[in-house]
Amino acid sequence: MTVYDIIKKPVVTEKSEALRREYNKYTFEVHPKANKIEIKKAVEAIFNVKVESVSTMNKKPIVKRHGMKLYKTQSKKKAIVKLANGNSITLFKEV
To answer: Which of 23, 42, 72, 85 would bridge with 3, disulfide CB 3.0–4.6 Å?
Structure first.
């Protein structure tokens, strides 16, 4: 599994932006079988930064209804990565 398989995409929400601004924490959607050490090495390799800590969480699928049909959403794994002081990641151009 390569580093680009581990880190799928950044999660950009109001809450993740608040974490980024106040605590220098970035949120990513990651591979479900990736562990914290693999996530740390992948972020350091891709973005060339120093990672202090990694927190992970699993989001279970939710049963939803569309008319008479029931379906489950996809399960996901998210990682919140805290960077060392002086490090930052530019995901998007600031406006």
So the answer is: 42
Instruction: Round to whole Å and give the CA distance between 23 and 17.
Output: 10
Single-letter amino acid, residue 21? R
Q: Are 84 and 52 in contact (CB under 8 A)?
A: yes
Q: Which of 42, 56, 46, 43 is nearest to 84 (CA)?
A: 43
- C-alpha dihedral over 9, 83, 76, 6, to 10 degrees? 60
Q: Tens digits of per-residue pLDDT, 47-65?
A: 999 999 999 999 999 999 9
Total Cβ atoms within 10 A of residue 33: 9
Could you tell me how many residues make up the chain? 95
CA atoms of 70 and 85, how far apart (whole Å): 47
